[in-house]
Amino acid sequence: MADHGRSMLQAAAVLADELLHAYGIPETGLITADGQLRTMGFTDRNRGALTVWAREHGLIDAT
Q1: Residue 46: CB partners within 8 Å, gap ≥ 6?
Q2: What is the pLDDT of residues 15-55, one digit of tens each?
Q3: Three-state SS across 26-56?
Q4: Are 54 and 41 in contact (CB under 8 A)?
Q5: Model-level pTM?
């Protein structure tokens, strides 16, 4: 889904959060409502490669 841009990631975030709410979990914590990935929520093992990939695809703001 993330390969299709931020709008698709926004939709995925809403869907994931709604599904988790049904089970009493407040949110995924991995995707913001505006379609950005929260890389700090991923493991140390995956975070570096994920951050590079997400920046290349415009899914996190360059900081």
Answers
A1: none
A2: 888 898 899 988 778 888 788 888 888 899 989 998 998 88
A3: CCCCCECCCCCECHHHCCHHHHHHHHHHHHH
A4: no
A5: 0.63
